[in-house]
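Dear Dr. H.,

I hope your travels went smoothly. While you were away I took the liberty of generating a structure for the chain from your last submission, since the lab meeting agenda had it listed for discussion. I wanted you to have the full record in hand beforehand rather than looking at slides cold. The sequence, exactly as received, is reproduced here:
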Amino acid sequence: MTDGADHDWLALLRADVARSGSIAATARRLGISRPAVSGVLHGTYRAGTHQIRERVLGMLAVHPCPALAGQEISGTDCAARAARAMPTSSAAALRAWAACRTCPRHPDQRRKDGNNAVSDLGCPGG
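The corresponding predicted structure, in token form, is as follows:
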């Protein structure tokens, strides 16, 4: 059973299993049980998949980061950067922090737009 019509996260999950060589390795990386990952991949997982989907998108999906000159980062890294306090020791770090705050993936920007959905842009947090 899967939640919603968005199956891109399943493609990310399958690709990570192929890259790592085993369901168990991917499950460990995601912090999800191996039977749960196996059930999702084989279409036999009976519980809702929303939390697994969010974990996959947060850890495996990547997007360009304006604070890092377009370098691709995961949703987990994005959320960690967004949660950082304003730096005061480096002009470059301050510029990167300011760029992060203007990104549409930043939680403050999503709140302004009325969009608090975690998975809309593949970036959790906020």
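Two observations you may find useful: The chain has two domains: 8-60, 62-121. Residues 1-5, 117-121 have pLDDT under 50 and may be disordered.

With kind regards,
E. W.
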